[in-house]
Write a structure and sequence with these properties.
single chain; 169 residues; 73% helix
Length: 169
């Protein structure tokens, strides 16, 4: 990666982006942030997101943290969408917290809304308040009727959970 020959450097970055596990993740993230060429930044970031998404015994919260770092490093909507899609699979409340603000970006809102619903369906029982807020945002921004229906159903589950856990008067 540090070779003076651009062809060697390019080949090394491409090889790292195809790494079979997440051991290359820290180096890929560093390259995504610091590579001199935009092409190498994009290759490294896409590789980083790909290796983060490889199934492993890593806890969901750690995977979410890694993908949140990828989302933060992404400059272009395509890479941001890839990170959001990965976060949808992370099944951790921090992932929901990261995708929710993306619904404010016109280029990302549908991908983020989809991720929020996917996460909400898994998290409403443990994080009803956060899921409720995210589903209300999905209903506000999404143009997809099917997705809005799923958000409404998930919102209903979250609201029911909040009623069940509310302190008795």
């Amino acid at each position: 990666v540090k070779d003076a020959d651009e062809k060697v450097k390019d080949a090394a970055i491409r090889a790292m982006a195809e790494w079979p596990d997440a051991t290359a993740a820290p180096d890929l993230l560093d390259l995504a942030k610091s590579a001199a060429s935009e092409t190498h930044q994009v290759l490294a970031l896409r590789g980083y997101i790909r290796v983060c998404r490889i199934e492993s015994s890593r806890p969901a919260a750690e995977t979410a943290k890694m993908l949140i770092a990828g989302l933060a490093a992404a400059k272009r909507p395509d890479e941001k969408k890839q990170a959001i899609s990965g976060l949808a699979e992370a099944r951790d409340i921090s992932a929901l917290g990261a995708v929710a603000p993306c619904m404010d970006d016109a280029a990302l809102k549908e991908e983020a809304a989809n991720a929020a619903v996917r996460l909400g369906r898994d998290l409403w029982n443990r994080n009803a308040e956060a899921v409720k807020a995210a589903m209300l945002k999905v209903l506000e921004v999404s143009k997809n009727d099917g997705l809005k229906k799923q958000a409404q159903e998930t919102l209903g589950h979250a609201e029911q959970r909040l009623k069940e856990t509310a302190p008795k008067k």
